[in-house]
Design goal:
about 10% strand; single chain; two-stranded parallel ribbon; 4 strands; Rossmann fold; 5 helices; 2 domains; mainly alpha; two-stranded parallel sheet; about 55% helix
Length: about 110
Amino acid sequence: MYGDDDIKAALGKIASNSLAATTIITRYELLKGARKAEEEEAVVRMLENIKVYQLDDETVKASALIFKELKKTGNPIPEADILIAGVAIAKGEPLVSRDDHFNKVPGLKVLLV
C-alpha cells in the first residue's frame, strides 16, 4: 500500500478506536493498490473492524445527483470518487481524503489530510 506512513498510522489509530467507516469502493481501491501479499493482509486487518458502507438505493441516488451537478458546473471528478462522495452524503458522514477535488461536491463535508 503506497502513501505516507503518518497517514497510515493515523488511519490505523482511527480504525482501532472504532471511529471510522469506509465504503466498499474504497475497500476495492485499497486492495487493488496493494502490491505485495503483506500489504493486502495489512489492508484486510485494518478494515476488519471498520464499518463498510455498501452501495444501496439511497447512496446511488445521492451519487447520481452529484454526477449531474458536477457535469452541469463543468467540474467532473473520477467516477469512483462520485460514488464515495454519494455514500458519505447519504450516510451523513464527513469524508477524510487527500484529494482536494472532493471540495467540488456540494453538500459534502471534507476533511483534507
